[in-house]
């Protein structure tokens, strides 16, 4: 006969359960089954992806970034021939050294920087005027070559200022535009003064000719009787005389053939007669012969 549990005796209204009807020697195992945690059900299939077959890609695993290189016995589609050679890559660490005295360095500042600070950009004087240039040329004894070199110095400066302006726009610097414009205006004022001086020099050719004669003609003050004479060789003198005689003969033959007197056919007061027309035509025919 089975024992009645105390819970049943204290609570007779509870319904009977299955463990109460079991044998007493199975009670410990049933108690263990009650207290044991419940486990999640185990799936009868695998959720891992299936193994795919090879895609027959011979270049699988080759990486340009990882420098894995070619497989053994792998050849390139482009082969080196006699007339075609594969280009060699340039070494990244190689430093290209240019000409230190290249002419294009003249379009950059002396320290060869691309941009100047606003304080350095504003360090310039007033533009040259025409009077300043004339006084400087007179004091230093310069000529038109001085104006030419000064003109190209201004051209280089304007080129440098334009390059700085584009570089500031590219970098979105936000500074230096005002100083750049002021310096450019000063350079343009100097170039206008150079053009004014050149126009003034061209309008006075006599003065320039006198300066040239004073500078390059040391015998200009010597009278004609005392000037050194050029003595010609006898052979050159004979050739000159023969050439002069030939010219005299040609002038004489031209004077012998005189053109007929011109007559005005369209004049209404004196229209030519038929005899005059025939005579004029005959004279033209003879002259052409």
TrEMBL record:
**UniProt-listed GO biological process terms:** mitochondrial translation
Stored InterPro entries: MRP-L47_sf, Ribosomal_uL29_mit
Q: What compartments host this protein? A: Mitochondrion
Q: Does the keyword Mitochondrion apply?
A: yes
UniProtKB keywords: Mitochondrion, Ribonucleoprotein, Ribosomal protein
User: What are the record's GO terms for cellular component?
Assistant: mitochondrial large ribosomal subunit
* Pfam family name, one: MRP-L47
Composition bias, Basic and acidic residues: 234-260, 274-289
- Coiled-coil portions: none
- Region Disordered, residue ranges: 200-289
Q: Does the keyword Ribonucleoprotein apply?
A: yes
Q: Which domain of life is it from?
A: Eukaryota
Q: Name one GO molecular function term.
A: structural constituent of ribosome
**What is stated as this protein's family in its record?**
Belongs to the universal ribosomal protein uL29 family.
Q: What is this protein called?
A: Large ribosomal subunit protein uL29m
Species lineage? Eukaryota, Fungi, Dikarya, Ascomycota, Pezizomycotina
């Amino acid at each position: 006969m089975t024992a009645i549990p105390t819970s049943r005796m204290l609570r007779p209204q509870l319904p009977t359960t299955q463990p109460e009807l079991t044998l007493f020697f199975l009670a410990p195992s049933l108690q263990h089954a009650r207290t044991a945690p419940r486990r999640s059900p185990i799936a009868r299939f695998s959720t891992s992806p299936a193994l795919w077959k090879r895609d027959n890609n011979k270049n699988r695993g080759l990486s340009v970034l990882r420098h894995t290189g070619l497989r053994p016995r792998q050849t390139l589609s482009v082969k080196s021939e006699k007339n075609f050679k594969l280009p060699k890559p340039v070494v990244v660490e190689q430093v290209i050294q240019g000409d230190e005295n290249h002419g294009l360095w003249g379009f950059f500042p002396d320290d060869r920087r691309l941009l100047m600070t606003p304080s350095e950009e504003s360090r310039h004087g007033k533009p040259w005027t025409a009077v300043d240039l004339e006084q400087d040329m007179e004091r230093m004894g310069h000529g038109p070559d001085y104006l030419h070199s000064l003109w190209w110095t201004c051209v280089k400066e304007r080129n440098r200022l334009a390059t700085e302006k584009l570089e500031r726009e590219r970098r979105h610097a936000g500074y230096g535009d005002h100083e750049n414009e002021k310096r450019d205006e000063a350079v343009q004022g100097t170039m206008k003064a150079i053009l004014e001086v050149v126009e003034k020099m061209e309008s006075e050719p006599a003065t320039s000719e006198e300066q040239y004669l004073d500078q390059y003609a040391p015998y200009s003050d010597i009278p004609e009787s005392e000037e050194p004479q050029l003595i010609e060789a006898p052979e050159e003198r004979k050739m000159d005389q023969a050439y002069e005689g030939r010219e005299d003969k040609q002038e004489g033959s031209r004077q012998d053939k005189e053109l007929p007197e011109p007559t005005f056919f369209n004049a209404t007061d004196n229209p030519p007669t038929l005899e005059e027309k025939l005579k004029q035509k005959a004279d033209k025919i003879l002259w052409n012969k």
